[in-house]
């Protein structure tokens, strides 16, 4: 198969599993005519919960990449597939998304979706002896999400699943599950991209928190951290994160810490400028 041969040739330039995912997304778009391809990886987030982090995405229409990157319903679907540890058979998007999200996806020409659960057992860093020169292998759980404008032929679906599972086997046997040598630089790049995306989001107070305060002001739980409490006072559903930084005279990273606390306590939600609910904890997990 052409894709398999190209994958084996491309391996020489890959150093980490993310390199593999970033190679696979445009390749699947090109060879299998999938309008959008995403790879989500399970990561440990704030307070130990598992979050799905988008590590690679390609689209036939580049404008779709930004629109789907932070969509919470898409992240929730990836998390659901990861929790069930099985594939999502090809189906209309209306079978797995709300009517609003379905209308939005169909507006982009995305009528069908398919998901595959991928895993590769490694050697967790916490349980690995430190041996000089020996790489630390990481267990990987990932979800591939593919969106289509028309249902692909069943043989095409089988080919995609075969390529994905073969890719994970290749990753394990070629050292792509080891921590990257430039982990610090990679992390800094991820942080910068996440901070840039976060700055444009608009925090909204959750309605149940507002109702609690309105009905009984004394019942509103006190926000322990002063910085977080001060930021919360300025959240009005209109100012984006960058504007909140300006009025509070806080840095973006300081505001990000406070927002993580408010999200974890279910006091706020994050929306983009068009009013779409976004997966804020996924972003903050990269900081």
Structure commentary:
With 287 residues, this protein is of the alpha+beta class. The protein has two domains: 172 residues, GAF domain (Beta-Lactamase, 2-Layer Sandwich), CATH 3.30.450.40; 102 residues, Arc Repressor Mutant, subunit A (Orthogonal Bundle), CATH 1.10.10. 47% of the residues lie in helices and 18% in strands. The protein is built from twelve helices and eight strands. It has a five-stranded antiparallel β-sheet with strand order 2-1-5-4-3. Helix 2 packs antiparallel against helix 6. The longest helix has 20 residues. The protein is globular and about 60 Å long.
Write down the overall geometry: globular
CATH architecture of the largest domain: 2-Layer Sandwich
Number of domains: 2
Relative helix content: 40-55%
| Sequence of strands across the biggest β-sheet | 2-1-5-4-3
Q: How many beta-strand runs?
A: 8
Query: What is the number of helical segments per DSSP (H or I, 4+ residues)?
Result: 12
CATH class label of the largest domain: Alpha Beta
Could you give the order of the helices and strands?
HHEEHHEHEEHHEHHHHEEH
Set out the fold topology.
Layout: H1 2-10, H2 17-32, E1 36-44, E2 50-59, H3 63-69, H4 72-84, E3 88-92, H5 99-107, E4 112-120, E5 140-148, H6 154-173, H7 183-199, E6 202-205, H8 207-215, H9 226-234, H10 241-248, H11 252-264, E7 268-271, E8 277-278, H12 280-284
Antiparallel strand pairs: 1-2, 1-5, 3-4, 4-5, 6-7, 7-8
Helix pairs in contact: 2-6, 9-11
């Amino acid at each position: 198969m052409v894709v398999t041969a190209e994958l084996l040739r491309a391996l020489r330039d890959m150093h980490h599993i993310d390199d593999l995912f970033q190679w696979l997304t445009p390749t699947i778009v090109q060879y299998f005519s999938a309008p959008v391809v995403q790879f989500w990886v399970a990561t440990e987030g704030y307070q130990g919960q598992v979050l799905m982090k988008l590590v690679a995405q390609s689209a036939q229409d580049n404008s779709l990449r930004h629109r789907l990157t932070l969509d919470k319903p898409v992240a929730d679907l990836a998390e659901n597939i990861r929790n069930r540890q099985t594939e999502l058979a090809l189906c209309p998007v209306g079978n797995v998304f709300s009517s609003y999200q379905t209308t939005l996806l169909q507006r982009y020409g995305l009528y069908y979706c398919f998901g595959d659960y991928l895993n590769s057992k490694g050697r967790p860093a916490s349980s690995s002896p430190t041996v000089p020169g020996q790489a630390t292998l990481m267990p990987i759980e990932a979800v591939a999400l593919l969106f289509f404008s028309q249902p692909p032929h069943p043989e095409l679906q089988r080919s995609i699943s075969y390529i994905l599972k073969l890719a994970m086997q290749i990753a394990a046997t070629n050292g792509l599950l080891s921590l990257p040598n430039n982990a610090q630089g990679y992390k800094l790049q991820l942080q910068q991209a996440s901070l840039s995306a976060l700055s444009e989001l608009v925090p909204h107070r959750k309605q149940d928190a507002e109702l609690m305060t309105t009905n009984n002001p004394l019942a509103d739980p006190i926000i322990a951290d002063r910085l977080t409490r001060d930021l919360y006072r300025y959240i009005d559903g209109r100012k984006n994160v960058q504007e909140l930084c300006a009025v509070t005279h806080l840095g973006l990273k300081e505001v990000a810490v406070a927002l993580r606390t408010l999200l974890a306590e279910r006091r706020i939600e994050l929306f983009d400028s068009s009013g779409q609910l976004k997966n804020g904890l996924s972003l903050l997990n990269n900081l």
